[in-house]
Every structure is written in C-alpha cells, then in structure tokens.
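Box 3.1 A note on notation
Throughout this textbook, protein chains are presented in two layers. The first layer is the amino acid sequence; the second is a token string describing backbone geometry. Keep the layers aligned when reading.
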Amino acid sequence: MVLIFALAGLFNYRITVKDYWLKLTKPELPETVAYKPVGKKMPEPLIQEKIAEEKSILPESYNLGVPFTSQAPEANWQIPFKEACEEASVLMVDTTTKTRNLPLKRPPRR
C-alpha cells in the first residue's frame, strides 16, 4: 500500500521531480565570451602560421553571449514564421556582431 502511495505521489509530482533531476545533471557551460571583431585581415601565409600557433592555445569550446530570439514571435507558428529558423539565427548573429540589441517588441503594422 505504501508503495502505491509513493508511486502515486511521484506520478503527481513528475514534472517537479524531472526538473530537479535535470538541474542536478545539467552540464556546466563555459563562461560567456563577448564577441570581438578581428579587425585587419592577414595575408594568407601569415594566417596558416597563426593557426598552427593557436591550435594549442584555443579552448575546447566557447560560449558566446548571443541574445536569443524566437522564430515565431508571439507564438504564431503559421507560415511564414514556421519556416523562419534560419532568419532568426541570422538576426541573432547580426545583433551580436554589430553590438545592437534585439527589439523587445515588433513595431506596429501600418
């Protein structure tokens, strides 16, 4: 009987238990790194030398602080927003590299 109540309690709080478990097993992300433009382009031979030097210096992964935007604003999943994941990705990268902020709300239609 106790086992049935325990299982019923776990079933009732399954989302809470799942969230707790995911929080415990969540992998650590590296610290976010701000985007820095490279500036001048190097001639091709110097690039190859620079890459050879940096292979041992570069970290295993980066965590860029890229702002997130949804491809479906206001949860509108109708066409064209259903197919707008590439556009949303380009917008996120563009706002990061040009140090602009994403608009919080879209402008009203005219």
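The two ends are 65 Å apart (CA to CA). The chain has a mean pLDDT of 76.
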